[in-house]
Amino acid sequence: MPMTMGYWDIHGLARAICLLLEYTDSSYKEKKYRMGDAPDYDRSQWLNENFRLGLDFPSLPYLIDGAHKITQSNIILHCIACRHNLCGETAEEKIWEDILENQIIYNCMQLKLKPEYLEVLPATLKLYSQFLGKQPWFLGDKITFVDFIAYDVLERNQVFEPKCLDTFPNLKDFVSRFEGLEKISTYMKSSHFLPRPVFTQMAVGGNK
Predict the structure, then answer these.
(1) 49-84, pLDDT tens digit by residue?
(2) What sections of the sequence does the record tag as coiled-coil (predicted)?
């Protein structure tokens, strides 16, 4: 029985999850909720059923896998990654994995503050570039779930500032390397892939 991944009809926090599900050949279906237009931003599609799904802490995104009902995007990513051996292996790798995950998610959330975010973007990208160095993936030779989060936020940066990676060739190569993965490339060419919008209409700077 396929898993169910629920989220708004945007890519937002769900895209890294979908990319990981596709990469791991996981069987899943998407449940998309539509938010209404301004000024009300009607969320009734979600609110009418959020407490009927058996989620302990109802929120979006969620992943329902049989008896396992999971919320919070980072926890969902962890669960999928652990099942498919896409986590750090050594104690040191696990530490860096946690640091990177939280740093990337923090930067991702700051994207909504577009003017302020763009001011510090070069310095932020420099840190990622220095950490990646000459490695193919952020933890070394093995791809892990943090690479899926990293790709997501780097690609979003290019949406808001198309030339932001021009001075960081290793980050540009990372993005190309990720998009060149066979399963990722196939998914991005399919009708299931949702490149836009990035945020809901309620988010500052969203849908642009």
Answers:
(1) 999 999 999 999 999 999 999 999 999 999 999 999
(2) none
Considering the entire predicted model, what is its pTM? 0.90
Q: Going from the N-terminus, what domains does the chain have, and what CATH number goes with each?
A: 3-84 (3.40.30.10), 91-181 (1.20.1050.10)
Structure tokens, 70: 């999971």
- Give the pLDDT of residue 12: 81
Q: For residue 26, how many C-alpha atoms fall within 13 Å in the half-sphere facing its CB? A: 23
- Cis ω for the linkage preceding 136 (within 30 of 0): no
The reported pLDDT for the residue numbered 196 is: 62
Distance, in Å, from the CA atom of 156 to the CA atom of 143, rounded to the nearest integer, reads: 20
The answer to whether the CB of 149 falls within 8 A of the CB of 156 is no
Distance CA 37, CA 25 (A): 35
Cβ contact 7:14 at 8 Å: yes
Q: In what order do the strands lie in the sheet with 62-65?
A: 28-33, 3-8, 62-65, 68-71
Confidence band (pLDDT; 50, 70, 90) for 113? low
Could you give the CA distance from residue 64 to residue 52 in angstroms, rounded to a whole number? 13
Give the list of residues 6+ apart from residue 116 with CB closer than 8 angstroms, or none.
110
E-strand stretches of 72-134 = none
Contact 17, 76 (CB under 8 A): yes
The predicted pLDDT at position 207 comes to 40
